[in-house]
What we know:
Elements: E1 3-16, E2 23-24, E3 27-28, E4 31-41, E5 46-51, H1 57-72, H2 80-90, H3 99-119, H4 123-126, E6 137-142, H5 150-162, E7 167-170, H6 175-184, E8 189-193, H7 200-210, E9 217-219, H8 228-232, E10 241-243, H9 249-258, E11 264-265, H10 275-288, E12 291-292, H11 301-313, E13 319-322, E14 325-326, E15 337-338, E16 341-342, H12 356-361, E17 368-371
Parallel strand pairs: 6-7, 6-13, 7-8, 8-9, 9-10, 10-11, 11-12
Antiparallel strand pairs: 1-4, 1-14, 1-17, 2-3, 4-5, 6-16, 15-16
Helix pairs in contact: 1-3, 2-3, 5-6, 9-10, 10-11
Amino acid sequence: MLITAIESSVVSVPFSMGGPHPLFAGQPWDRLEILLVRVETEDGLVGWGEAFGHAAIPATKAALDTIVAPQVVGRDARDINAITRQVLHGVHLLGRNGPFVYAFSGIEIALWDLLGKRCGQPLWRLLGGSAPRAEGLNAYASLLSYGGDLELVARNTADARAQGYRHIKLHEVTRDAVLAAKAAAPDAAIMLDVNCAWTPPVARDMAASLAQDGLTWLEEPVWPPEDSNGLASLRRFGIPLTAGENTAGVFGFRALMEAGAIDIAQPSVTKIGGIGEVLQVIAVARAHGVEVVPHCPYFGPGFVATVHIAAAQVERPLIEVLWLEMEANPFDPWVRVRDGKVAVPAAPGLGCDPDPAILRRYAKSEPTRIEARRPA
């Protein structure tokens, strides 16, 4: 089943987040953008994927349109492993963690969507899972940064708990924010993600101050994120440590685990190379006794693919959901949370195609289309 065309497009949707919109990578962030990948095959099937993402979209889309997609069109869509090996090797000189790998991630997710549709099976079943529970998977509210405003931290934590979330993650950098959240939702599990804020000496001081606060985990406390020994030096404070969204491939994760740096691995399906690469990380994590909680602050196929992976392969699924409200979403209702749970689609493939009317309404520009060359 040859791939006849690959399209990339960007959906840009206004959102609210319970506070003032922050800067993201130095740019105002008041619209949530999704970089969608659409893969067509000669038998008329269409698969959907999502490539990372956010402020990196222009770079990722350029890599996708000019380098990655031309390597994939004309190939057999069923050869996912072979395509992965060829493309990731073909772009490795351009970076093992960045726009070229992000771009391929979107294509690879779409290939799995196609495989499931062709087989008539949902992705979770293809990945070896049994039927998920009807009530869905546990989700956690991933609050955005309020710049240290404790009133906003408390208010949004309380609101998330009122909406049924039993796990709530902060993107703040102070103990005061943790204490404000715990006071606002005493029965919720609180996590703290500081996005690589501290050098190891500062991180150790902060971990010592947080050690008795009952954090469910401390995420990416060390700068730079590849300093696995610096991260491992925080283990003695007894707070479970998580990392992985910035880790390059399965060997990057293996290095973290062999250094004893993490309790929980957080691979990101839209960044690491797709579903197959996440499955490899899960296998290595099992061998090292490390839990997996995928990183997935997305609202498109990357989010839905993560739900399928977690339903099939993760013993204690916990799905990250950004705490914001989009004006619309082409993948409703599968990106919505009800009473702290997210549903698992049962239809073939990812189990949900986007609403074309919403795609048109919020399109940032016309799709870019790469077609297979026809024989002369």
